[in-house]
DNA sequence: ACCGATCTGTTACCAAGTGTTACCCGGGCG
DNA sequence: CGCCCGGGTAACACTTGGTAACAGATCGGT
């Protein structure tokens, strides 16, 4: 599982930085945000795995923000509040929160819930957490991760290089979810040791995607499966069926 | 949303029938089960939307059952327990429970959580939150929002850019209603978060309208469909028929 | 260790999309 | 008749992604 990217939404700078630090120390990428506008900016800008949303935000209401976000977003949301009555919890659930934690909270419990929410979203968005080898079928193609072979709809066997294999697996693990170039690069480098985490603003990913397209897209000019999200990254845009061996 | 089918797992007959009744009275189909074997039988037999799983099951442990179910099942699970310590809750989350409720619980809160868990699983199981795709027909033209293609009355295929697509969708959604440039600009920028709605009265919309006209107006000099409302904005001036796929 | 085949990242160039600017036209009005 | 205003649009600039070509890295066989 990749490193979770968590958006911390709180108007109190002290609590915000406390939460941010806590998350960072436990292996998350924590991104601070202050209100709905900045949440939406982050959502538009890149992948967010989870939102930690304080209910009391001074001028804005966390409940209202959650409700509005749910109009078009499915990102997991955990609400945090000093209010712990059943009525308040129900309000949170009613507007689509995935979980509700009362302050003061046990950090361990917070992480347990974060893990639970993330595991659940992985579970539901197919198979990312399954590490066993499997056979994938998509749009007539077959990818056997055990044999590392790709079979075209016409039955031709296509050989993939290591990098191409890793790219395909990353995409298959997240169908319909846009992956940024950074995320793809991270997924490619899990095998060999991470080098400079710097923004090596190279075009390696673009080139790699092009090479994979040349192999598994019937017509690379009109990508059906491996679609480009301009300004964002790439998406595997067809449904994927998984078979356990 | 269809009627939820809930599996009630408890070894205490009294509590089980109490829960079952409570759920039935509130519009659920409640199915009683007593242990892992009977849970799996139900899962194999038909659709189950949610499992209510008591932690204390006499000879079997709810935590262990949950853990084993999670090896191959992604059905939402809410655990119920008399134990409410952080440690116990964490154990529940750790084995993949979607939520954890301590006894005695407020029935309203239980239903709020059931709704939350079900809404979430709808959200994440793709389709539900995916934007509606449809086919629009107007003045002999066809716009397929799924393929993002426009078919002219003569049968020629016209490709639209992203912006042009967004503009056409905004217009199709409001036939015969004049849209101001600000409104159109707002509709175009939903994807990439734009900042201040400041002055910046550029001519981007005008140019974009011109480009769209060049593609879908038979004679751009005499616009029939995409009409200009002088001093106001633009109107889509023909009737639009929508077909759900 | 040597050699060739393959893989992979970088660079450079190209095409497409989009916003801005500048200039044009036409109509309403003095 | 000349002026102004609103809109049309050509031309340009800038950004983003696709990809060919090149060079270094890797790997396997001898």
From TrEMBL, chains A, B:
Which Gene Ontology cellular component annotation is one that this UniProt entry carries? cytosol
The name on file for this protein is: DNA-binding response regulator
Alphabetically ordered keywords of this record:
DNA-binding, Phosphoprotein, Transcription, Transcription regulation, Two-component regulatory system
Q: Which GO terms describe its biological process?
A: regulation of DNA-templated transcription
Q: Which GO terms describe its molecular function?
A: phosphorelay response regulator activity; transcription cis-regulatory region binding
Q: Which InterPro entries match?
A: CheY-like_superfamily, OmpR/PhoB-type_DNA-bd, Sig_transdc_resp-reg_C-effctor, Sig_transdc_resp-reg_receiver, WalR-like, WH-like_DNA-bd_sf
Q: State the organism named in the record.
A: Brevirhabdus pacifica
CDD domains membership: REC_OmpR, trans_reg_C
Sequence intervals crossing the membrane: none
């Amino acid at each position: 599982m990749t490193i979770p990217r968590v958006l911390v939404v709180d108007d109190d700078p002290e609590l915000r930085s406390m939460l941010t630090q806590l998350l960072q120390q436990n292996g998350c990428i924590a991104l601070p945000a202050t209100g709905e506008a900045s949440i939406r900016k982050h959502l538009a800008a890149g992948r967010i795995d989870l939102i930690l949303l304080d209910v009391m935000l001074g001028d804005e209401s966390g409940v209202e923000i959650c409700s509005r976000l749910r109009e078009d977003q499915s990102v997991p949301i955990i609400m945090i509040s000093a209010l712990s009555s059943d009525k308040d919890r129900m309000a949170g659930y009613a507007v689509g929160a995935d979980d509700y934690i009362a302050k003061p909270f046990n950090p361990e419990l917070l992480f347990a819930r974060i893990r639970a929410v993330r595991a659940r979203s992985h579970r539901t968005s197919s198979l990312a957490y399954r590490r066993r080898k499997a056979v994938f079928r998509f749009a007539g193609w077959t990818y056997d991760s055990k044999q590392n072979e790709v079979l075209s709809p016409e039955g031709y066997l296509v050989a993939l290089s290591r990098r191409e294999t890793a790219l395909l697996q990353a995409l298959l693990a997240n169908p319909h979810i846009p992956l940024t170039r950074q995320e793809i690069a991270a997924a490619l480098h899990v095998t060999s040791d991470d080098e400079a985490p710097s923004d090596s603003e190279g075009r390696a990913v673009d080139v790699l995607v092009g090479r994979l397209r040349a192999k598994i897209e019937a017509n690379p000019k009109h990508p059906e499966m491996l679609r480009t999200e301009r300004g964002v990254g790439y998406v595997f845009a067809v449904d994927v069926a998984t078979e356990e061996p």
